[in-house]
Design brief:
By secondary structure, this protein is an alpha/beta fold. The chain is built from nine helices and 13 strands.
């Protein structure tokens, strides 16, 4: 009998992407409620308790309410919202980090990482674990993200939908920095999962392409060779997962690094550059892929004992 997978909140950007990725899978049965029952509590409770895995693609408060409906002790919940990423009893769904793949495989509650957080954590957590970056480090980082990360409203703004006002086109031609008050919702998981005593000084920037993400972290005084060796060990060939270390992808891009290079994919690359005691760490991926729906499917695959990249673009 095929495992049953329920997508709760399948009308949003992440939910739709998950449905697209699972559409060709014949090894699972995807359960999607009809439109008239999409918000029906009784129908959702039955699906959450009757399926092997449920993926929540809901706002934070709605995700908390959905989890409260689950009574079946065998049911696995993967939450793509921010609600449970630092909560006790929830496994953080980034299997490439040391020791987490086995814990994800046996977990009943899995918190899918945030998009910006995924890129930052992939770069920093291995270095903290190796002692290259201290737990008391004060780090600075920025992230370039495609506008699809803002959901349907922002997509409509950039693509000329009904929500886009008159005379504001110029605002959408360049990068737009936000979360200037240093209270971005991904900061708690960045600090906790990396083992940092302080969250980074972090600047996210929306750029005018649909999807793709590039996270950059700056280090002073780090040994660049040690950083690269750490990444090779963590993300080198044969280590599994969807994150890989690249020596110098900029050489194939004329010395540049495009934030849209992995748009449409579900994997991630990390690289490191620098000189004179200054090091630049860069991760690139799709904010809708390894930053959201791709990661959720990867975690689902691990839970079901499937190859991690099954049904994904890697």
């Amino acid at each position: 009998m095929r495992p049953r997978v329920f997508i709760d909140g399948s009308a949003g950007t992440t939910g739709l992407r998950i449905r697209e990725r699972l559409a060709s899978r014949d090894d699972i049965e995807v359960v999607v409620l009809p439109e008239e029952l999409r918000k029906d509590v009784s129908a959702r409770r039955d699906a959450l308790n009757g399926c092997d895995v449920s993926v929540l693609c809901l706002p934070d408060a709605a995700a908390v309410e959905a989890v409260a409906l689950v009574e079946n002790p065998s049911a696995v919940v993967i939450d793509t919202s921010t609600a449970h990423r630092t909560a006790e009893g929830w496994e953080y769904g980034f299997p490439e980090l040391s020791g987490r793949r086995g814990r994800i495989a046996s977990a009943k509650r899995i918190a899918n990482p945030g998009c910006h957080a995924s890129g930052f954590i992939a770069l920093v957590e291995p270095l903290v674990r190796a002692g290259i970056v201290g737990r008391d480090a004060s780090l600075s980082a920025f992230s370039l993200t495609g506008y699809s990360g803002g959901g349907k409203k922002m997509i409509a703004e950039y693509e000329g939908g009904a929500d886009r006002g008159e005379g504001v086109s110029a605002l959408f031609l360049g990068g737009r920095q936000y979360a200037l008050g240093q209270a971005h919702k991904h900061l708690p998981e960045m600090a906790k999962i990396c083992g940092l005593e302080n969250p980074p000084c972090f600047s996210p920037v929306v750029v005018p392409h649909f999807s793709g993400m590039e996270v950059t972290v700056f280090l002073h005084g780090a040994d660049l060779d040690a950083v690269k060796a750490c990444y090779r060990e963590c993300y080198g060939s044969g280590n599994g997962g969807l994150v890989r270390f690249e020596e110098d992808p900029s050489s194939a891009e004329g010395g540049f690094l495009s934030s849209a290079a992995l748009s449409g994919r579900d994997d991630m690359t990390v690289s490191a550059y620098g000189g004179s005691g200054r090091t630049v760490l860069v991760s690139r991926f799709d904010n809708l892929g390894k930053g959201a729906s791709g990661a959720a499917i990867q975690n689902m695959n691990i839970v079901l004992g499937c190859p991690e990249g099954l049904g994904l673009s890697v």
